[in-house]
Amino acid sequence: MTPITWLVEPEAFGVGYSAFTNAIEVAGHRIIHWRDDWWFDGRVPRLGDSPAVFHGSLGNADRIARELPWQPGAFCRTEAFLCSAWYPMARAWLAHDRWVHTTAAAFVAAPDVVATELAAEGRVFVRPDSPLKPFSGRVCQLEGISLGALDHGFYYDDPNLPVVVAPVRAIGEEWRFVVANGRVVAGSGYEASRRAQVQPGAERAAARAQEIADVLEAPEAVYVLDLADCDGELRLLELNPFSGADLYGCDPDAVVAAVSGVAESYAPLRT
Q: How far apart are CA 265 and CA 53, in angstroms?
């Protein structure tokens, strides 16, 4: 076994993250706690030949993947997780059977045009196209919709931010699964509003996740796949970068073993 350097940012997640760091230590890997001031003082750790994996905030995961020489570094190939990149391939499984890609400004300027295209009345669901989530997905009233209702000026400044608009759909139980090299390795039910685990992964949901992972082109070697119960049917909600994803109640030993195994396959890189 090749020891992996795990760079972790526990403060990015809720309580219970110690179970994940404990699993890393038990597996014999190295842990370094991420520090944001490294971006400013240039004192980023030199890791020698050790493969490295980051797990923490989405913003840091994205920047590490783009700017640092670690391998694999961060499983956060952001462009592959744009809704506009993978929605068309996932149409058969998506919670939304129709949607419109537009911009925040264009939607606010002509909400009735978008609503007509979607055959929606009164309300729609809006989310950013980006997996970095400059605002959280939400149900919006069409009447009186404004950029402010989409958090413009708080978390982003460009009114032309790409967004996805879809009809509102009732969402029941939600599930998160970690997929590594095409295999579902761990899963957990979760409640996103509280960022909390609500129950362990169920066989039915895990089987559905694997069914999708077997066919859908993987955006990256390791990623997370979210399902939701929609009127009794398990449908695909999102694909997200592993390195910026909350693991909720996913089995930490299984996640560490699988992700470390993928990282081990990367050629040594001296930094």
A: 12
